[in-house]
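Technical annex, item 7. During the second reporting period the consortium partners agreed on a shared format for inverse folding records so that results from different sites could be compared directly. Each record opens with the tokenized structure and is followed by the designed sequence. A conforming record, contributed by the partner at site C, is shown below for reference.
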């Protein structure tokens, strides 16, 4: 574990695809127990286009090495669009191995963390809500299918620029996810919400209570996977079933 005042229980190094939005950092410290800290580094994505995503992939190993210099215990790569852009089944695990070789630390990719979280909750079917353009949703649907997770219905807001995603009011995430779940054929096992530029951890519990379901987001998966990988235990309440299961 990291020594000193920073992350005396767990110190997570997070690779963000864009400059870090202030809200997730604020919410991180509202959610995690005392002694769990996060240090971030940002990549170069300005808009969700294939050239931007490919450029981000090229910078991830350098970013992991940079975080290793700050005494983090684990490196978490945040952001699923670059992972699914390659169209390669299992690429999240391949990238995970590459990052570990680069920095010498345990590494978790966003997509791998999400899939592990879903499997742990026995989620096999999901409704998905994103601010992305539809072609990214389509890639996510295909990638998750290779992990034995079926997206039965998805909604995409069709936004390309990250600055526009960040302008979305927090309730839009709740409303989009709720609509995707209610429109899905049958009853999905859960809801999946990627993207750190919109929404809030505070939307998880209302969605779970109102729809009697389980919600996996980019951020609760990040906290859950990092704590499990580094053997930091203890349920976190008020932010959904996944974190309560720790």
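Designed sequence (site C submission):
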């Amino acid at each position: 574990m990291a020594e000193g005042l920073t992350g005396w229980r767990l110190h997570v190094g997070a690779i963000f695809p864009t400059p870090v939005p202030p809200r997730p950092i604020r919410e991180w410290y509202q959610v995690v127990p005392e002694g769990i800290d996060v240090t971030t580094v940002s990549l170069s994505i300005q808009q969700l286009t294939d050239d931007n995503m490919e450029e981000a992939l090229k910078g991830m190993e350098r970013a992991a090495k940079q975080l290793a210099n700050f005494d983090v215990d684990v490196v978490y790569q945040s952001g699923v669009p670059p992972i699914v852009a390659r169209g390669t089944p299992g690429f999240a695990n391949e990238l995970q191995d590459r990052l570990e070789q680069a920095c010498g630390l345990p590494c978790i990719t966003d997509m791998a963390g999400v899939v592990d979280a879903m499997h742990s909750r026995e989620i096999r079917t999901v409704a998905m809500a994103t601010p992305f353009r539809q072609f990214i949703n389509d890639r996510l649907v295909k990638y998750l299918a290779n992990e034995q997770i079926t997206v039965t219905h998805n909604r995409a807001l069709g936004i390309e620029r990250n600055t526009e995603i960040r302008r979305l009011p927090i309730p839009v995430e709740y409303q989009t996810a709720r609509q995707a779940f209610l429109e899905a054929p049958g009853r999905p096992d859960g809801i999946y919400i990627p993207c750190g530029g919109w929404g809030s951890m505070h939307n998880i519990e209302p969605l779970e209570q109102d729809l009697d379901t389980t919600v996996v987001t980019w951020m609760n998966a990040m906290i859950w996977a990092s704590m499990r990988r580094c053997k930091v235990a203890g349920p976190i309440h008020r932010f959904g079933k996944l974190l309560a299961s720790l």
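The radius of gyration is 17 Å. DSSP finds eleven helices and eight strands in the chain. All partners now use this format for quarterly exchanges.
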